[in-house]
Fold UDP-GlcNAc:betaGal beta-1,3-N-acetylglucosaminyltransferase-like protein 1.
Amino acid sequence: MNQRKCLHCWVFTSHGPTVIMPTWFCSREWFYHVGKFDEGGKGVPEDLLFFYKHIEKGGEVFRVDHCLLLYRYHPQAATHSVLEGTIWNHRVRFLEDRVLSYWISFTIWNAGKQGKKLYRSLSPANQKKVTAFCDVDEKKITKGFYTYEESEERPKPKIPICHFREATPPFIICVKLDLTHGAFEENLNTLNLKEGMDYYHFN
């Protein structure tokens, strides 16, 4: 996959924008076209919201391999006022709008904490599209299913848990990269899937 495509597929990852805001540069015309930053005040992730609007308006992401800026971190930076939960909610809504609204069903790759958190955060309509969780952990697989205890439905939804080789794409992957000495990446590669079509990372 070329770099341009790869960066665009990674806009849903846990670090928000594929590239951090202090390194951005674009034309003034494009900045005004996107609509400037959201100046809603303390606690608003204005860079994330601007980045999402940029993507929604057809903007792309490119990488320039040069040091363009020295960014000085300091403890009083406004970024500390943005709650993790706020960013999470924006990320989920963006994923739903840009990907899940076009899928009729999908599998969440990770039957652990992050995968279940994503499931619980989805809209009811998108929760119903989840056909299964998949994993490599035999303990989770043996359990057989995840019960959504917080649901008001009766009976409560039970989502199957299966081995990743038995799962049906497309996938939303909630597994962090570079944490398993290449084991997860090797498992993913064995399926011969196409990123941006058969799966997206939401790690």
In short: The chain has a mean pLDDT of 87.
